[in-house]
Design brief:
Layout: H1 2-19, E1 32-38, E2 45-49, E3 52-53, E4 65-72, E5 74-82, E6 88-96
Antiparallel strand pairs: 1-4, 2-3, 2-5, 5-6
Length: about 100
Amino acid sequence: MNLKLFVFAVFVAVCMFVACKKGDDSTGVRQYTSVNFINTTADTVNAYVNGSRVNTTNALFPLGSSGYINALLGKQNYQVRKNGKPDVLFNTAISLDTGKV
């Protein structure tokens, strides 16, 4: 009986030791920059970043702007669609950096 308990205790200790992760598990700091969408078309549009609408409070009217919106650094997919329609006016991947204009 004592041998079974000892083997079980050793097994649990080995499992606990092996289950511990080695190294740094941090996800890192996410860096952001600012983007301002300006509507220069005659249509009312919505702006999307990686498939998510960024101007959620209202649509961008002709000659209107979204104001500065936080966007992750690096390559992101930007898309502009007509308001209330699936028509895509603009779709491209752009890489942004805080030190560039």
